[in-house]
Amino acid sequence: MRTHTLLFVVATLCLLTLSRLLLSLWQWRRVQAADGLWPIIKGGLRIDAALIAMLAGIPALLAPWLGQYAAADAIAMAWFLTAWFLLALLEASTPQFITEYDTRPNRLYVEYLKHPKEVSGMLWKGYKPTLLAAVSVIALLLWAGFQLLGEVRVETTLLWWQKALSTLLIAALVFLTIRGTLSHRPLNPSSVAYCGDGMLNTLPLNSLYSVFHAIYSMKNERSASDVYGKLPQEKVNETINRCAGITPISRDIPSLHLHTPDRQRARPLNLVIIVEESLGAQYTNRRDSRSLTPCIDALMRESWNFTRAYATGTRSVRGLEALVAGFPPTISDAALRLSGAQQNFFTLAQALRQQGYRSHFIYGGEAHFDNMKSFFLGNGFDALHDIHTFKNPAFVGTWGASDEDMFSKLDALLSRADGQPTFTLAFSVSNHSPWEYPAGRIEAQGDPATAENTVRYADWALGNFFEKAKNSPYWENTIFLVAADHDSKVHGADLVPLRHFHIPAFILGADIQPRQDDRIISQIDLPTTLLSLIGIQTPHPMIGHDLTRSSGNRAMMQYGENYGYLKGDTLIVLEPHRPPSQYVYSVPGTYTPAPLDSALHEEALSHALWPAYAYKNREYTLPHLYSP
User: In terms of CATH architecture, what is 224-625?
Assistant: First the structure.
């Protein structure tokens, strides 16, 4: 066991160091721009030592006592080979994961494992060469592992005092190495973060450590106050209500207020929210021959178009949480996946049900993905229409039926008017790797299976739907919001890359007049605004601004563990266990450091803390659903 343990320690340290060096060389321009290689290597040795101590600690402690037994050595050998396989798998997965998400494998890697069918199909169809290369690397590393560790070794028996002394020394070494420091806070990813580039701050980690840390972080709901700083809950509620212009009407639900539109409707209008998958503003309004979205660009000119709308996060569940529930982003998971939000959690469907609306969710994939089915059905939606309800879809890809099939379902539902007002959430699926869509719809440029060509198809499908909708009976009594859930491949060397949170968002239909709105807005402002446009007076706990009034000019977003609060041209960034920073932001991507405004920092911190308080205390709800 002693030999196996030593071989595993040395081999693992070599593997992880080599992998880190190769990743650093691949990203050398960014590494060079951020203090070079040494901080990555130095931090990496600390993290690798901690992980190795976790994996080899128990065999090392038992080796002095059991090393002379073949069965014990065989068990240790199997353990080390399993650990070696996991190390090889995660490191081989890392380059493609960084390409997609600009970070090492993390909680998203774990979450995708819950959907093996969709993910395996996506990898095989969209990343076959990369997948084959990764499998080859893993196979080579497994062969090397078996050469080093695949033989049972029986060792000589130590004297009793040698066993006792060895155990004490090994125990102390393992404990100190795992803790990684003599300071108050044990070693963690923030201990080796060294620059403003979020991706580079993950290079000192190794990917198995990163995934272990993600799993550990998921054990309990994360509290923003533990990572960003604390404020009294009363102060947070006061700040939130002041910033949102709220006059609360409930002691139990601090943000509950009566929403009163500027004008009442003779009859309630239908409401449709169309969420475009991964369609950031970078793809729209290109004023040259590279235009990818002619239909969206034309629709923007005919609508109330928000030119500076910002997503709250980088995942679909985060965008849905904002657009459907008006819930702000948090360092914790999105509300759709939180166990305490599966019922009695506010959504537009909950509010509109009280006004006699029937609510539908349409999705070309499987509604259980990302826990959408449980969340929506538990929180006010009456019917879900996923791929299993689509009859003879025109095209089915890895992630589900195409956008045109989803829009056909939407058109059919809206056309079945029976006098009852409806709220419909329609979520597209086509604009996702491996970039699959029906042939013959667009004129593809180059390789058909690219993000740009899939954006062209998503644009075509949306434009085709609105051509029908404008000539349909439901057009005059329906308000449509079109907005992206998030941008694709959010990345960059900035603590919060704002240009990749910029999304298209526009409202049209019924009597909406065309206008260009240049205010900074957040996704959470849109559901509040929609209630005014359809003429609904109702109590609700949303803190988004009603954009039919003079408001806006601020946005908030969660980027990994960093929280951004943009107000005017000033950006406050909150990082875990680090002082806040402030910048003057200029579009598209200039950040000028500025002295910290303490009042604005308190405002940003209040917005970062409030969602966790509201969720934990079950305060994001309606009075008839409230249960402390």
Answer: 3-Layer(aba) Sandwich (3.40)
